[in-house]
Amino acid sequence: MNEKITTFLSSGLLDKYLMGTTTDAEAQQVETYISKYPEVQNAYNTLQYNLEIVAKSNAVEAPKHILNTVLETLDDAPVITLARKEKYKKWYKFSIAASVAAIAFAASSYLFYNQNQKLNEENQVVVDEIFDLRSDIEQNNKKLDAVMEQFKRLNDPNTYKYIMKGNDRARNLKTVAYINPKEKTSMIDVVSLPQLPEEQCYQIWADLQGKMVSLGILSETDSHLKRIPFTENASGLNITIEPKGGNAVASLENTVAEISLQ
């Protein structure tokens, strides 16, 4: 690999291109390198595969929509026209007009009061939904940060990838272990686990100087990237079939998959 390609791969432009944060000029440079150099194409495919693994293990739920506030339109108050009758005295006409005005004012006040109460309730609904939306955004940001952290771990040069396939007892079993001895982290991607009877389970072990140390139970529902305990100086990993709930001692005669870490 020539120095030009090495410098490009170390620049981090591929990561930025995958996350959609490159400028137009940077994106054009990345696409030129991908189409021109097979080494860059392979590195791009590897990063894309690892990003898919991380994205699969962190489903981000979509946020709630804010309901639109609908304001009811007030009907125009009907105009009451009084027929003029000259035979009534002026004071009587004034008293009738005052009574009508008082009734109209009371009716309008009642309508405005009800309208104000309805608006207050609708505003409270909007406030509550905005609060929920902010909470959803915060949760989604935390999930995105976790995805980015896992993505960085998978693409760390010190992270080693180990594929574990099942033997004749579990032909369809497949898991991928990611171990970083420098950061002392271990993760496993449960790709597929053959179904077991209800009274049995799969359990993963680390081989530490001939002693099997339990790293936990693998469930059929764990079809995503998850962390497992890191074991210093482990020489291998084993998956066995154990009684439901797990076992304190590995049943090596029931081993269905194993790999060496040396």
Secondary structure layout plus pairing:
Layout: H1 3-10, H2 13-19, H3 24-36, H4 38-56, H5 90-154, E1 160-165, E2 174-180, E3 185-192, E4 200-208, E5 211-218, E6 225-228, E7 236-243, E8 255-260
Helix pairs in contact: 3-4, 4-5
Strand order of the largest sheet: 1-2-3-6
Rg over CA atoms, rounded to whole Å, is: 35 Å
For the record, give the distance between the C-alpha atoms at the N and C termini, rounded to a whole number: 27 Å
What kind of sheet is the major sheet? 4 strands, antiparallel
Listing every helix as H and every strand as E from the N terminus to the C terminus, the arrangement reads: HHHHHEEEEEEEE
- The fraction of residues assigned to DSSP E strands is 15-25%
**Number of helical elements:** 5
What this model shows, in words?
- Helix content is 43%, strand content 21%.
- The protein is α+β, with helices and mostly antiparallel strands and 262 residues long.
- It has three domains: 3-56, no CATH class; 60-155, no CATH class; 160-260, Sandwich (Immunoglobulin-like).
- Residues 60-77, 79-83 and 85-93 have low confidence and may be disordered.
- The strands form two sheets. Strands 1-2-3-6 form a four-stranded antiparallel sheet. Strands 5-4-7-8 form a four-stranded antiparallel sheet, with no helix packed on it.
- It has helices at 3-10, 13-19, 24-36, 38-56, 90-154, and strands at 160-165, 174-180, 185-192, 200-208, 211-218, 225-228, 236-243, 255-260.
- The chain contains five helices and eight strands, in the order αααααββββββββ.
- A hairpin with a 4-residue loop joins strand 2 (174-180) and strand 3 (185-192).
